[in-house]
Design a protein that fits this description.
Layout lengths: L19 H8 L3 E8 L10 H5 L2 E4 L2 H6 L2 H6 L1 E6 L5 E17 L15 H4 L11 E2 L8 E2 L12 E2 L13 E2 L6 E7 L10 H9 L4 H4 L10 E12 L11 E7 L8 E2 L3 H6 L5 E4 L4 E5 L13 H19 L4 H10 L8
Antiparallel strand pairs: 1-2, 1-13, 3-4, 4-9, 4-10, 5-6, 7-8, 10-11, 11-14, 12-13
């Protein structure tokens, strides 16, 4: 049973070291029930010796992950906020799918093209299909990719990773071009926030054509699988007038693989000893965050580590996207509004 709580279950201190930002990140972190799943271990992915020898490992299904967003998609995620005058409100944020990349650890029977569901205008992709060989060029106009191949690279050869604490997997190391796994599906939302479907509705729509979006398990995915969720404020209780700080929007990046170090197992020791088939829960906190319309001390409390968190989380998002060579539309929009001259392109 997934743990649930009301926004007022969290203590709301009036002390100067209270952090609305950290409360937000806690409230929008999905908690997913874990299951005992077959170990899909394969060479090339980081795994402990004990994990590699197990036939059954703990993980979660993507279906359960999306289910954890059901209430948030319908009513919004509730976040308790302490205003600068000491008043308390509950702000509700609606989640929408911003971006998604699913890399499997083994090839599937029906591999998908790298550029499925990606707007060609955004990528600046000029198709130069060669007759008879079924190939095309990537968005940089280089590196010919065969459509029929499922072993699609997401990294440049000899890519060096940055600080290991920045990413949801591994230590500092050099990755080669075949380390990402097999790209099953990727998505990059281009629509205006007002025109987007609720997250659950969008997933159901996409799953009609890509059933793996609900059928796959975390143990099937490589550590390079991730999703980005856009959070936009919809209303607050009680209503607050003329509070520009409450219009802040967020973009959070979450891991999807059991091998990702960003996930946190919160199963109790008692449940571990009992060895239940659905033995606990796992939280998927964001490993990177980008903000928009965030100003003032409501979100950045100088008495806390908020400023450092924002900088580190924003840098993590930039590095992550650069390493995957993914032109994330919402990220570029958020950053262009923060820093007109800021550039973070592959």
């Amino acid at each position: 049973m997934v743990t649930s709580f009301t926004p007022w279950d969290l203590p709301l201190p009036c002390a100067s070291n209270h952090s609305n930002l950290q409360y937000f990140l806690q409230c929008i972190t999905p908690i997913v029930p874990t299951r005992l799943l077959p170990n899909q271990a394969s060479n090339g992915f980081l795994q402990t010796h004990d994990e590699a020898e197990k036939d059954i490992v703990e993980g979660f299904t993507l279906r359960d992950l999306w289910h954890s967003y059901t209430e948030w998609s319908a009513y919004g995620a509730s976040v308790p906020i302490v205003l600068n005058n000491g008043d308390h409100v509950v702000q509700y944020y609606t989640p929408s799918l911003s971006a998604l990349q699913i890399y499997t650890r083994k090839p599937l029977s029906s591999p998908r093209s790298v550029f499925d569901q990606i707007d060609e205008k955004f990528w600046g992709l000029a198709h130069r299909a060669e007759q008879g060989n079924g190939s095309f060029y990537n968005y940089r106009g280089r590196d010919k990719i065969n459509k029929s191949s499922s072993n699609v690279s997401c990294l440049s050869p000899n890519t060096t990773w940055y600080n290991s604490t920045t990413f949801p997997f591994g230590s500092c190391c050099t990755q080669t071009a075949n380390q990402c796994g097999y790209l099953y599906y990727q998505y990059n939302e281009m629509a205006s926030p007002y025109d987007r479907l609720p997250l659950i509705v969008k997933i159901k729509e996409l799953a009609k054509h890509y059933p793996g979006l609900v059928d796959l398990c975390s143990t099937d995915l490589s550590p390079y699988s991730w999703m980005a969720i856009a959070w936009y404020p919809v209303y607050q209780i009680p209503t607050v007038r003329n509070a520009k700080e409450l219009s802040a929007c967020f973009l959070t990046y979450h891991p999807l693989s059991s091998l990702s170090q960003g996930s946190k197992n919160i199963m109790s020791e008692k449940e571990k000893l009992q060895g239940k088939s659905c033995s606990g829960e796992i939280s998927l906190p964001p490993f990177a965050v980008v903000t928009y319309k965030m100003s003032g001390t409501l979100w950045i409390n100088p008495e806390t580590s908020d400023q450092d968190i924002i900088i580190c989380q924003r840098t993590a998002a930039c590095y992550w996207l650069k390493q995957l060579q993914f032109q994330h539309h919402d990220f570029n929009f958020f950053m262009s509004r923060q820093f007109q001259n800021y550039q973070c392109s592959p």
